[in-house]
């Protein structure tokens, strides 16, 4: 099955769910071939997206900017936040890796 967790305990018994970030993967084919890949982690305060192969990204403070109008990617004041979210995203990707099951990302 897909990596994830059952919501049954929360639905059936009202048990609280432990906080975990949302992970979003998007990997469309570009015109002329090739892939562009986006991986996003959304936590309570921040939304972080990393694009490959460019290495560019988007970092948004959802508390201060709920409409996501300011990209903090290049803001030196958010360098540590960005580094932490890169690590968290990598850990979540490794935790949910399904390549050993013969699955390859994409729609």
Compact description:
The chain is built from two helices and four strands.
Structural class comes to alpha+beta
Main sheet summary: 4 strands, antiparallel
Radius of gyration: 16 Å
Note the run of SSEs as H and E.
Answer: HEEEEH
Oligomer: single chain
- Unreliable sequence segments: none
What is the rounded distance between the termini? 16 Å
Mean pLDDT: 83
Output the strand order for the largest sheet: 1-2-3-4
Tally of alpha and pi helices: 2
Shape annotation: globular
Number of strands: 4
The fraction of residues assigned to DSSP E strands is 15-25%
What share of residues is helical?
Answer: 10-25%
Features:
107 residues, four-stranded antiparallel beta sheet, alpha+beta
What does this protein look like?
There is one protein chain. The protein has about 110 residues and is α+β, with helices and mostly antiparallel strands. Helix content is about 20%, strand content about 20%. It has helices spanning about 10-15, 80-95, and strands at about 20-25, 35-40, 45-50, 55-60. The protein has a four-stranded antiparallel β-sheet, with helices on one face. The longest helix is centred in the last third of the chain and has 17 residues, at about 80-95. It is globular, with a radius of gyration of 16 Å.
């Amino acid at each position: 099955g897909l990596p994830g967790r059952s919501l049954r305990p929360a639905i059936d018994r009202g048990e609280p769910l432990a906080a975990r970030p949302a992970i979003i993967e998007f990997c469309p084919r570009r015109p002329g071939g090739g892939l562009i890949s986006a991986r996003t982690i959304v936590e309570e305060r921040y939304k972080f997206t990393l694009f490959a192969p460019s290495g560019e990204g988007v970092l948004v403070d959802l508390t201060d900017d709920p409409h996501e109008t300011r990209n903090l990617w290049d803001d030196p004041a958010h360098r540590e936040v960005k580094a932490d979210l890169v690590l968290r995203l990598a850990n979540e990707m490794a935790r949910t890796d399904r390549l050993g099951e013969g699955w390859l990302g994409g729609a």
